[in-house]
Amino acid sequence: MMRRALELAARGVGQVSPSPLVGCVVTRDDRIAGEGFYLYERVTHAERLALEEAGELARGATAYVTLEPHAHQSRTPPCTDALIEAGVARVVAAIADPNPKISGRGFAQLRDAGVDVQVGLCEREAARLNEQYLHFMRTGRPFVHLKLATSLDGRIGTRTGDSRWITGAESRARVQQLRHENDAILVGAGTVIADDPLLTDRSGNARRRPLVRIVLDETLRLSPDSQLARTANEAPVIVFASEGAARSPEAASLTARGVEIIKSESGGRNLHEVLRELAARSLQSVLVEGGAGVAGAFLDQGLIDKASFFIAPTIIGGRDAPAAIGGKGPEKLADALRLRDIEIHQHGRDVEITGYGKAVTSDE
């Protein structure tokens, strides 16, 4: 039943941020009486949808919910009130909600009303499903997912800069799914100049907010005629530039196109500053797609929460061919980032290796 609730919650991917993914299953006599999952625009929470579908069968029933029900007035009345009023006898939750407005209060209110509450069923799966929301609530900064496509020898292009396409169509389709799962996508100016990308979500799946496109461009090299600038009124484009560059004629041309330019003392090199700005905009997650300098900067500043490498069975070679990650790097191998909870998947001829910079749990 909890796995079914998790399946339901996953239907909200791309359609709930900045809220969490939540699914609920109400059962009576070991049979499903009602189901629900949350969508931000639909407003009604998963618990209330499942209770409405269950009707009178909710009295004495068990509710399986993927996240602690909220006990405060938000966009909707408290879900705890709905569960109590419906006469639910037992609530089984996968994980607690770290939101300080909710954490522990939902469970406490249910227990005070005589509802049997159990927590921890499918905890790991639920934490993974809401990894971006959980991280944002605990740290106050967006969850950073680094994505790189490389050759077997760790190159992201040839010595002449040719980089399309290292990986196959199946891997590129998977990357579109990753874009769909995130609030923002981030690249450096070098990538924009070399590839003139659109950086859009082309997964074909519905999303609530357009993917926010972010460029770290200290000297403001982004052209007003680039695809990003020409589509800035269709999906947001945010450029972090130095204060001097932000006052230049080029900045005025980009602004006229709809590009938002943020003045930064570091020109975007201080990634903690960048992430604070994104957090202030309720962007819970960012997919970092390149290039090597940007990837190295996130590594050097200890800001990689998750990494996905798409490795093609291709050997490029060449001492001048760019490596996947630049930056300073650690002095000792013992200080290198060692990913945990590794998953390996094959996409056509390519292999995706994904892991976490820190173990993902329901609590820190």
Number of strands: 14
* Gyration radius, in Å: 23 Å
How would the global form be characterised? elongated
Q: How helical, in percent, are the residues? A: 25-40%
H and E order: HEEHEHEHEHHEHEHEHEHHEHEHEEE
- Coarse structural class: alpha/beta
Strand content: 15-25%
Largest sheet: 9 strands, mixed
Count of helical stretches: 13
Mean pLDDT over the full residue set: 92
Q: Ranges with pLDDT <50 over ≥5 residues?
A: 359-364
Quaternary organization:
single chain
Task: Measure the end-to-end span.
Answer: 26 Å
Strand order of the largest sheet: 10-9-8-7-11-6-12-14-13
Question: Could you characterize what this model shows?
Answer:
- The protein is of the alpha/beta class and 364 residues long.
- The protein contains 13 helices and 14 strands.
- The chain has helices spanning 2-10, 46-54, 79-85, 105-112, 123-129, 131-139, 169-181, 189-195, 227-230, 243-246, 249-257, 271-280, 292-300, and strands spanning 23-28, 31-37, 62-65, 90-93, 116-119, 143-150, 184-188, 212-216, 237-241, 260-263, 285-290, 306-311, 340-347, 350-356.
- Strands 10-9-8-7-11-6-12-14-13 form a nine-stranded mixed sheet, sandwiched between helices. It has a five-stranded mixed sheet with strand order 2-1-3-4-5.
- Strand 7 (184-188), helix 8 (189-195) and strand 8 (212-216) form a beta-alpha-beta unit.
- Helix 3 (79-85) packs parallel to helix 4 (105-112).
- The longest helix has 13 residues, at 169-181.
- It is elongated, with a radius of gyration of 23 Å.
- The protein starts with a helix and ends in an 8-residue tail after the last strand.
- Residues 359-364 have low confidence and may be disordered.
